[in-house]
Amino acid sequence: MLGIIILAAGMSTRFGRNKLLEMVHGETVIERVVKNSLASNADEVIVVLGHQSKNVRRVLEDHKCKLVLNNNYHTGQCSSVKKGVDMLVDRAEAIIILPGDVALITTRVIDAVIKEYLSSNSSIVVASHHGSHGHPILFSKELFHEVLNIDESTFGLKSVINRHMDQVTRVEVDSTEVLIDIDTQEDFKRHLLGKDLFDQEKQ
Q: Which of 57, 71, 123, 131: disulfide with 167, CB 3.0–4.6 Å?
């Protein structure tokens, strides 16, 4: 069993309002990420809620994902990662971590990471572009205990990756989608507004 954990609990401080609820081509940012995840070859999609959880839950209520509330979201992203992993730790052989604001990530890329894991059985599989690590990131069950012990002070998931660089398999992607997240309104305008995202998914 392979699951995807989507992190949707953050406060969007730099954006000024909840960026996950911004509309792009008739759907919110978080809906887009969830829909592309659900369309992938993963077996289960879990969305970790926190800030404005009722509003995010409302836009996802018709999607076949599982929602879990992180009451400690204000402490940082690590708490959301661990909340999601807790839901899968006893059942999954691997998990994919996706921030909720990676609005350009396509099903094609998620499936490429899954395919690489299934063929290589690597402990960590990460999408990359020109050698730079991006998203999604997959961790096999051998590393779940380390993921459950990450901390903001030691840079969270980066600390796990850094300890196991010799076990990292990169999936090279020919577009920058794996490197882009939406932190500010300028990011949103530059990467999402006016772009034909449907055509991108078909590439």
A: 123
